[in-house]
Amino acid sequence: MEAWVIVSVAVLVYVIAVKFLGLTEKTEPPSLLHANSKFVHRILQACPILTEPYVPTFLWGRSGHLQTTIYAKIGRFSAPWPTGERCTHVMPDGATFTFDIFEPTASHSTGGDFTMCVVPGIANNSEKAYVRTFIAFAQSQGFRLAVLNHLGSLPTVPLTSPRIFTYGDTDEYSVLVDHVRERFPSSHLISIGFSMGANIIVKYLGERPKRQDWFLCGLSICQGYDITKATYVLHEWENCRRLYNFMMAQNMLSEIRRNSGMLFGEQAKAYWRDRESDPIAYNIDQIMNSTSLVHLDEHLTHKMVRSNSCEDFYKECSSSVHIDKVHIPLLLLNAADDHLIPVRHNDTPVRYAQRAPNAIYCLTKHGGHLGFFEGGFLVPNTVSWMDKAVVGYTNAIIELKEVCLET
């Protein structure tokens, strides 16, 4: 074999193994940022998973791109199908939204009653593999879960008003929480959000601080905090962010097409006619030709909620405006190799965690966007590190609460 062929193959193997797969990178404990309060140190003592190395799946788990891509395309390997009860609620504008309640499959170690109020990521619902996996794992640890299904995300639940979910609308989540509080009055609540859902729960807690009295803690997983900044970042080609943006826009467009009749078709016209109002004027061609989330927001979303501009819409939706008013324990979890949310733009959680005595900003070296796969050489465990970290942190909060009650 020619020497140049051998050298070329060796270089290719090196690039794949070292540069793309990162096989030579060492695993490390997460980087933790907090205000160094006694409360946080007690939480970390009770939650060792946050101070121990996260070891991703061996062959590809050190690649943020592969973590993110496999999460997006597969979700979780061998994901279970937990059985829940679907609840339906009609909002004042006629929108029909659903959420699902999943009862625990085992008793909690403390014997207490705990309910996780969960908001999934963009265009997601309780039927997505990563959500199903988290539900089943949390159930097995003694938790009840109430999981929001974003408007328009379920093919079996048609829209009944001309709007779909937005990045920061907390109205549906508020109804979910009120339902849980009324139905399970003795249950202790935990607020959890994934990606866009994390933006919603932090905004929900901060925009009306009295709501925090109902919760033990909050957990924000893989969110970008400031939507205005995120829109600029997602148009950068660095680390393929523009490609990710395009793929998310296409995913959104599939939901828009499925619901187009009620959004801007004959059903929408009938809706506005019944209310003696003029329909919102959309350029449907521009909507359908959108290649980024920003384009969709310009041509559809900000008009749908009757915001003056995209800029105003993003400010209205962002949790960064409200996070400083969150005083209950809050875990902010991101991955350094989440290329959708580059670390250099995460000044909001850094600033907040440095000042808030009950907050922890946890940044893992690996994990991608909502990946956090672990175990195995090629095929990872079904339950992710993220699932275990969320439950571990929540149990630490519960343990600390029990100690405080005893003393």
From TrEMBL:
InterPro entries, sorted: AB_hydrolase_1 (IPR000073), AB_hydrolase_4_sf (IPR050960), AB_hydrolase_fold (IPR029058), ABHD4 (IPR012020)
Catalytic residues as annotated in Swiss-Prot or TrEMBL: S195 (charge relay system), D338 (charge relay system), H369 (charge relay system)
Superkingdom per UniProt: Eukaryota
GO cellular component: sperm flagellum; sperm plasma membrane
GO MF annotation, one: acetylesterase activity
Domain (AB hydrolase-1) ranges: 116-375
One GO BP: medium-chain fatty acid catabolic process
SUPFAM superfamilies linked to this entry: alpha/beta-Hydrolases
Family, similarity comment: Belongs to the AB hydrolase superfamily. AB hydrolase 4 family.
Annotated protein name in UniProt: Monoacylglycerol lipase ABHD2-like
Species of the source: Acanthaster planci
